[in-house]
C-alpha cells in the first residue's frame, strides 16, 4: 500500500522542483516507526481520545418548512455555533441515502486501483485538482497520511463527467456521471444552507444564495489508510478551509476533530448527517461575525477511513464583500473586497491555512495596492 501524500486544496509545489515519488510501502507490524516525513512535532501530535463535541443537529426540513418559530429557533442555533467555532451538522437534508452509499463505494473503486491507473489523474504542478499521493516537492515534512482525488464542478455544465471521460476513458463515464449528479445535489444543499446562514446573520434569505448560484466549486474524495503509528501522524493537519463552505459526509470511522474552547474535540460520525463548516471566504462575507472552522483529521491502525467533501466556492468574477447590513460602527468593515482567485493566489504564495489567514491576506492586499 502506498503512503498517501499532502493534498491540501491550495497547497502548491515549488515550480522549480519536480515531484519526487517516495513510493514507500506501508509499515509492517514489526516496524517500530513510520517514515520521518509523516511524523508530526510533539506539540502537534494527535490526541487519540479527545472529548466528544456536543452540538445539536440542524433540521433542514424544519428550516425549509417556513414555520416562523421553528425557523427562528434554528437560526439562533446556527448563529451561536458559527460565532463560536464555525461548525454544525445538518439532518433531514433531503439527500438520498442511496446516493451517499454509492459515493462511498466508488471511493473504494478508485483508490483500490493500481497506482498507474490512478496516476492518469495525477495532479500537476500549479494545479489544484487531480489525484494526489506520496511525493516530496515543496513540502518534505509533516505530510498527511492520505490519498485524495479532487475535481472541479460548475452548475449547468458537464465539467465532472467530461473530466473523467477525457482523463480515464469510456470505462469511467458512469463514474463521472455519478459524481456529476452528486455535486449537483451538494450544490443545491449548499445553496439552501446559504439561505440559512443569511437569515442567521439577519440579512435576506436570498442574499448569499444568489451570490453562490453560479458557483465554481471543488469536490474531493478522501482516503485515509490504516497507519501503524497513528499517535505520530495526522490524516490532515490543523487548518481552516480557505473556501466558503464545506459540506462533508464521513463514513462511520471516527477521525474528524474540531478545535473548540482551546482543545481538540472529536466529531462522531452520524450516517444521516452532513458536517458543515465555515471557510475563510464566507468569514469575510460575514464581516468576521462567523468564524472559519479550525479542524483536522486523525488516523487509526485498524481500518480505512473515507470522506466526501464538497467545497463551495464563488464564481471567479464575484467580488467578495460583506453586505452593508453587517458593517456597523461596532463592527466596521474588516476585510478588503476581493475575488476568490485573489485569496487563492495568496494561499499559494504563502501556504497559509490557519485562523490568521484572512488578517494576513488583508495586509497583503493593502501592501499590494500601495
TrEMBL record:
Pathway note: Plant hormone biosynthesis; gibberellin biosynthesis; Hormone biosynthesis
Cofactor dependence: L-ascorbate
Protein family according to the UniProt entry: Belongs to the iron/ascorbate-dependent oxidoreductase family. GA20OX subfamily.
PROSITE patterns to which the protein is assigned, alphabetical: FE2OG_OXY
Keywords: Iron, Metal-binding, Oxidoreductase
Catalytic activity: gibberellin A12 + 2 2-oxoglutarate + 3 O2 + H(+) = gibberellin A9 + 2 succinate + 3 CO2 + 2 H2O
Alphabetized SUPFAM superfamilies for the sequence: Clavaminate synthase-like (SSF51197)
Name of protein: Gibberellin 20-oxidase
GO MF term set: gibberellin 20-oxidase activity; metal ion binding
Amino acid at each position: 500500500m502506498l503512503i498517501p501524500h499532502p493534498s491540501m486544496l491550495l497547497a502548491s509545489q515549488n515550480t522549480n522542483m519536480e515531484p519526487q515519488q517516495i513510493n514507500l510501502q506501508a509499515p509492517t507490524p514489526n516496524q517500530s516507526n513510520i517514515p520521518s516525513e509523516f511524523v508530526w512535532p510533539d506539540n502537534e501530535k494527535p490526541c487519540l481520545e479527545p472529548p466528544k463535541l456536543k452540538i445539536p443537529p440542524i433540521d433542514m426540513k424544519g428550516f425549509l418548512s417556513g414555520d416562523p418559530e421553528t425557523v427562528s429557533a434554528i437560526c439562533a442555533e446556527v448563529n451561536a455555533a458559527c460565532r463560536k467555532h464555525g461548525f454544525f451538522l445538518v439532518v433531514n437534508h433531503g439527500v438520498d441515502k442511496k446516493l451517499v452509499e454509492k459515493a462511498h463505494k466508488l471511493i473504494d473503486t478508485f483508490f483500490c486501483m493500481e497506482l498507474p491507473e490512478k496516476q492518469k489523474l495525477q495532479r500537476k504542478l500549479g494545479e489544484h485538482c487531480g489525484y494526489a499521493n506520496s511525493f516530496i516537492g515543496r513540502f518534505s515534512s509533516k505530510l498527511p497520511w492520505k490519498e485524495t482525488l479532487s475535481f472541479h464542478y460548475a452548475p449547468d455544465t458537464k465539467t465532472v463527467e467530461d473530466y473523467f471521460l477525457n482523463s480515464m476513458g469510456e470505462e469511467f463515464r458512469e463514474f463521472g456521471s455519478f459524481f456529476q449528479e452528486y455535486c449537483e445535489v451538494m450544490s443545491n444543499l449548499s445553496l439552501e444552507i446559504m439561505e440559512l446562514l443569511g437569515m442567521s446573520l439577519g440579512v435576506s434569505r436570498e442574499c448569499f444564495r444568489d451570490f453562490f448560484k453560479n458557483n465554481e466549486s471543488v469536490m474531493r474524495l478522501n482516503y485515509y489508510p490504516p497507519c501503524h503509528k497513528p499517535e505520530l501522524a495526522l490524516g490532515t493537519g490543523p487548518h481552516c478551509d480557505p473556501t466558503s463552505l464545506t459540506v462533508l459526509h464521513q463514513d462511520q470511522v471516527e477521525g474528524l476533530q474540531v478545535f473548540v474552547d482551546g482543545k481538540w474535540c472529536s466529531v462522531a460520525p452520524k450516517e444521516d448527517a452532513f458536517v458543515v463548516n465555515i471557510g475563510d471566504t464566507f468569514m469575510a462575507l460575514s464581516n468576521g461575525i462567523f468564524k472559519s472552522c479550525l479542524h483536522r483529521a486523525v488516523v487509526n491502525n485498524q481500518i480505512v477511513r473515507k470522506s466526501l467533501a464538497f467545497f463551495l466556492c464563488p464564481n471567479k468574477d464575484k467580488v467578495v464583500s460583506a453586505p452593508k447590513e453587517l458593517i456597523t460602527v461596532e463592527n466596521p468593515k474588516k476585510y478588503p473586497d476581493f475575488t476568490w482567485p485573489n485569496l487563492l493566489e495568496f494561499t499559494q504564495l504563502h501556504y497559509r491555512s490557519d485562523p490568521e489567514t484572512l488578517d494576513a491576506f488583508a495586509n497583503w492586499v493593502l501592501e499590494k495596492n500601495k
